[in-house]
Design brief:
The chain is of the alpha/beta class. The chain is 42% helix and 13% strand. The strands form 2 sheets. It has a 5-stranded parallel beta sheet with strand order 1-2-3-4-5.
Length: 179
Amino acid sequence: RIHLMAGRVPRGADRAAVAGEMETTFIENLRYAADLLAQEDMTGLVEPINSRLTDPRYFLNTPHQAAAILEKVGRPNLKLQLDIFHCQIMDGNLSRNLETYFPLIGHIQIAQVPGRHEPDSPGELNFPYIFELLESLGYAGYVGCEYAPKGDTVEGLGWLRSYWESRGLQPGGTEKATE
């Protein structure tokens, strides 16, 4: 899997004025990339990145826009990389968005909102609920942790051990042996 970036609205350009041309170019580039990736049995991922905090000029910024573009591209080896952080900032409504766009999702990334820290840090999102929803939808892929740890990396992964233990699992996500 490889992230295929959408590019940025040129400095000084009006987003609405260049949107059609940018979308056309992006679609053409995605078709070209998808065909090359198919030869290697690879999947391309498109990720909406929020334009409110992270990158005001990034062209692709909502899952709705990404879904429409993926439909126009029409290649089965292109999927949505849904970053929960960006989705919450741009649209909220995470449960509905996960359910709606689930057939398109090829990868999930997480970070708490607003600080972009660990999932168990204070913030807007209830990650145990989100993880259970993903499981109920049948998501079997990886979940990328794209956050800035408040401490060091090992400390920043402590939430995962606690989450596994709350689910009766041991590190690595395997079931604990019953005695």
